[in-house]
Backbone:
């Protein structure tokens, strides 16, 4: 795939602390934990294959961070990577994800490299590919002037695999944009709110391209969330998007068939009111995982389903980024999260009062069961891998959720309540 209202802002300022307290658990419970030794397979352009540990190996937490240990390799097949000689490698990440995100007045720049992790432990990069224009030699390189930064979402796209990822020189497999493979694995559709894809290093969640039409109203319908960026109307690269006038020594190459518009990050501009999202590519909204609301980033697509700039996260974080993916886990005060997951449920539909058998893992200690956020009137824990729950009256179609004191989990498909049959007249 290629490529605000004042009320919302006021609500965010007023309710940030409340939101974080109510919705801190997804940063602990949304990761795809590998508890079976599952591996992921990569294929190189010459046909060579390799396997590596997949997904997230361990989640631990203290009062400040969720510590996510991951290989950086997904469980779905990746590769080949046309024209890319690099080979995916186990990154042994220990990412520190803030449990209570802070919102600074001065925003920190996103970095070259890992700016977040997807729920399968794969790295999220921004749009910068690490090269910039060097005016004196009229070349692009890592030693460029650092003014006209090359857009990895366009220049590197030829080397992306079908999952829209590729490895860099150190074997870091990563996505600069939305991955259809991860979306498919998480059950993403164009008619429901996108699933939670991961977390930026500032602790705020990242979602796919679809969200609620009205940010604070989950009943407003679902639609594609639109980026606020557009290509600038320029033929010469003599000014920056903020209006800064450059000196001749700072000019970029003129727009032509070699240096097409969109080749550099500075070819784009953000316009208030153009789309749904702010310059960081996020907004304050409610989501299925954060019914009380949160700031969230969205991985944007255009009308044709191609990646839309800035693809993942903008040039700055909304929140304060953490210490990154090479964290040292404290020796004390850290809890290891027992895996909690719903694997399946049966039957897939049923009326009020009917019984549904839910299977998965980590069910010991579950405190409540919900059908589309409506609490089940009763349930029994049949073991660590099975719960039998009663469908509540008035439940609408939606996910099943189970709550434990330290975590919760949702089903990946909807339960469909059935309506009682009406008796025919005179019967």
Residues:
């Amino acid at each position: 795939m290629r490529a605000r209202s004042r009320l919302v802002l006021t609500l965010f300022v007023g309710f940030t602390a409340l939101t974080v307290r109510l919705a801190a658990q997804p940063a602990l419970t949304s990761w795809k934990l590998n508890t079976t030794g599952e591996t992921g397979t990569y294929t190189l352009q010459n046909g060579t294959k390799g396997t590596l540990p997949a997904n997230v190996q361990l989640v631990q937490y203290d009062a400040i961070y969720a510590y996510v240990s991951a290989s950086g390799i997904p469980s779905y097949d990746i590769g080949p990577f046309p024209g890319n000689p690099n080979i995916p490698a186990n990154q042994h990440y220990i990412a520190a994800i803030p449990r209570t995100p802070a919102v600074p007045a001065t925003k920190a720049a996103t970095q070259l490299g890992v700016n977040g992790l997807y729920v399968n432990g794969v790295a999220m990069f921004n749009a910068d590919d690490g090269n910039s224009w060097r005016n004196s030699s009229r070349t692009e390189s890592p030693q460029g002037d650092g003014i006209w930064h090359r857009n990895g979402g366009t220049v590197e796209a030829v080397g992306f695999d079908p999952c829209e990822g590729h490895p860099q020189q150190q074997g870091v497999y990563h996505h600069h944009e939305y991955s259809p493979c991860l979306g498919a694995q998480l059950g993403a559709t164009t008619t429901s709110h996108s699933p939670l894809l991961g977390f930026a290093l500032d602790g705020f969640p990242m979602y796919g391209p679809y969200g609620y039409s009205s940010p604070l109203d989950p009943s407003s319908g679902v639609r594609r969330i639109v980026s606020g960026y557009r290509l600038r109307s320029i033929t010469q690269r003599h000014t920056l998007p903020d209006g800064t006038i450059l000196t001749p020594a700072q000019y970029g190459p003129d727009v032509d068939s070699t240096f097409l518009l969109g080749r550099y990050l500075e070819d784009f501009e953000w316009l208030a009111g153009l789309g749904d999202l702010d310059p960081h590519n996020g907004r304050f909204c409610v989501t299925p995982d954060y019914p009380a609301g949160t700031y969230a980033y969205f991985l944007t697509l255009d009308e044709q389903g191609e990646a839309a700039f800035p693809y993942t996260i903008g040039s700055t974080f909304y929140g304060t980024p953490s210490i990154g993916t090479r964290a040292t886990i404290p020796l004390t005060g850290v809890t290891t999260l027992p895996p909690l997951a719903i694997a399946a449920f049966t039957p897939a539909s049923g009326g009020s009062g009917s019984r549904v058998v839910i299977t998965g893992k980590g069910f010991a200690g579950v405190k409540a069961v919900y059908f589309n956020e409506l609490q089940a009137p009763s349930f029994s824990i049949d073991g660590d891998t099975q719960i039998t729950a009663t469908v509540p009256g008035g439940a609408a179609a939606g996910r099943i959720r189970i709550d434990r004191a330290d975590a919760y989990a949702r089903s990946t498909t909807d339960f469909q309540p059935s309506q009682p049959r009406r008796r025919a007249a005179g019967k």
Notes: The radius of gyration is 23 Å. The helical segments are 6-22, 26-29, 152-155, 180-185. Residues 339-417 form a domain with the Immunoglobulin-like fold (CATH 2.60.40.10). The chain has a mean pLDDT of 91.
